[in-house]
Design a protein that fits this description.
Glutaredoxin; DUF7962; Thioredoxin-like_sf; single chain; 42% helix; 11 helices; Glutathione-S-Trfase_C_sf; Glutathione S-transferase Yfyf (Class Pi), Chain A, domain 2; binds glutathione; GST C-terminal domain-containing protein; globular; alpha/beta
């Protein structure tokens, strides 16, 4: 099995989502910590323009977006996978994943503790304004707090309904499943700074609050029990990845609504922020195109070595580029 390297930084909710999954699975991996803001010089070594965190290398294959990362890890390590076994559970799991990104995360952002030092760091504020078009200063976030609480209350009601029959985990599994990670990670990121709160009280949401406590406890236990990830510097990471094999074969390139063809030079970028379309485009040779995944071959900068970058089709655009 190829080495796994997670690109993340402490404090990233999405990075924590993936490290939580790896800890619950007991999968060994390394971490290469990146600055919280752009530029990220380590990525130059690989010739990667992708702006978001996390992404994961398995050998010379680089997977963008936790959505695809989980799909790959569930397939590569099928024994005691955390994903739902039945179709209806899997569908609910996917809906929960997208609900968390499209709805929950936006609701909880303004609940971040306003005393966090980075919220007064002018470099961070400028960077996030350019990426999201949003004001992350304590005053900017404060304006959204009441709306956030109204929304989180609604979301807690939905979770309370799911948990009302006394189950420990959302799909009534014995252990926390992937769906629990999807639904809990945003709340887990901010709740310590929010609770106790009269609008999110144990009287109104007893099962949801217990479930969140259970989640935090389970994750802390798993992280304490397993080996801590090895921390790699940028040059150690590049040396390791560039000397690895591909972890899977390329292809197929299926007939696709974009009309793109195998071997064509294409640009890949995210469509859910303000600056990726213009500033964070990866350009390479199209080698895989299916309903769920795209992969491009690019050449690393640190050595004459090809890498494959993979992304889900959700929230990413692809377009032909003239050679
Ligand atoms: N859908 C993406 C979302 C990733 C995301 O938005 N991550 C945040 C950090 S937690 C980010 O990249 N922010 C800008 C940055 O760190 O450069 C995933 O699941 O990986």
């Amino acid at each position: 099995m190829s080495e796994i390297v997670l690109f993340c930084y402490p404090g990233s909710p999405w990075g924590a989502k993936v490290s939580t999954y790896l800890a619950l699975r007991g999968i060994e991996y390394s971490e290469c910590h990146q600055p919280m803001t752009w530029p990220r010089p380590d990525l130059e070594l690989l010739n990667i323009r992708y702006r978001r965190i996390p992404f994961l290398a398995i050998g010379r294959d680089i997977f963008y977006d936790s959505l695809l990362i989980f799909e790959k890890l569930e397939t590569l390590y099928p024994e005691s996978a955390l994903g739902a076994k039945e179709c209806s559970g899997r569908a609910l799991e996917k809906l929960m994943e997208k609900w968390a990104e499209g709805t929950l995360l936006k609701s909880v952002l303004c609940l971040l503790p306003k005393t966090l030092p980075l919220l007064t760091d002018s470099n961070f504020l400028k960077d996030r304004k350019e990426l999201w078009g949003m004001d992350f200063s304590p005053e900017g976030l404060e304006q959204g707090v009441s709306k956030s609480l109204v929304e989180v209350r609604e979301q807690f009601s939905l979770l309370e309904d799911l948990l009302k029959d006394g189950r420990s985990w959302l799909l009534n599994t014995e252990k926390a499943g992937l769906i629990d990670i999807h639904a809990a990670f945003c709340f887990d990121w901010v709740m310590a700074g929010v609770l106790p709160n009269e609008f999110l009280s144990p009287d109104s949401y007893p099962n949801t609050l217990k479930w969140l406590e259970r989640y935090a406890h389970t994750v802390a236990q798993a992280k304490a029990k397993g080996p801590a990830p090895t921390l790699l510097t940028g040059s150690e990471m590049a040396k390791l990845i560039l000397a690895s094999e591909f972890s899977e074969s390329a292809g197929p390139v299926k007939k696709d609504p974009t009309g793109l063809q195998e071997g064509q030079t294409v640009a890949l970028y995210r469509i859910d922020d303000v600056s990726s379309a213009s500033q964070h485009r990866d350009v390479g040779r199209l080698v895989t195109l299916t309903e769920h995944e795209v992969a491009l071959e690019i050449k690393a900068k640190a050595a004459d070595v090809e890498l494959r970058i993979h992304a889900p089709r959700w929230q990413f655009a692809l377009e032909a580029v003239d050679n």
